[in-house]
């Protein structure tokens, strides 16, 4: 069995609460990032604004230098955006390692309904990355990243659309490449964890339902729109929908069956 690669534990990414839920392994963290339709990207917008900025963006983990690298190997985070957006302008003018940013995302897999409000929770997966972002200036790497991100929206969509993008489209689109410094994830699986003091109280247990409501993302039936004249829904779309719906449901339902760790058994 090969060595498991992990992110270094630093002040910025080390979990303080529910440490047993934390993971620093590259594989789970990258999988959560790549399985999210939206990534929330935070950065310091400058001295004139006291508030940190946060943007919803589309992105994907990958390696241009080693395109066959697996999900549990060192990868960069590529983010897609518009040429004149604030984050792109900041990254363009940033010297040194690049613009310091944080990438975060989360997925809810279940509602944990317990006897007491304080013990309610979610089954969830969350991940954060810290790194330095620079604009991708190499045209081949930019096209590679655009294909990577497009296919993360829907598998094989790049080859089933008008490609390559024309000159105006390439100029208006900017790709940020984030060199990841550290990362961490948190995962909660399992069923309900009630307070021990309530176990024998039949007045409570006889009137309150407890359990887990599984939650998963579902893709619906495609609805034709726009200028495309193709009547039949292509196989690359229908197979993607069927595959993702089955995977998402299986993940949410299997999470319930995981035995709670000792730290959560009151």
From TrEMBL:
<dbReference type="InterPro" id="IPR012349">
    <property type="entry name" value="Split_barrel_FMN-bd"/>
</dbReference>
<dbReference type="InterPro" id="IPR024747">
    <property type="entry name" value="Pyridox_Oxase-rel"/>
</dbReference>
<dbReference type="Pfam" id="PF12900">
    <property type="entry name" value="Pyridox_ox_2"/>
</dbReference>
<protein>
    <submittedName>
        <fullName>Flavin-nucleotide-binding protein</fullName>
    </submittedName>
</protein>
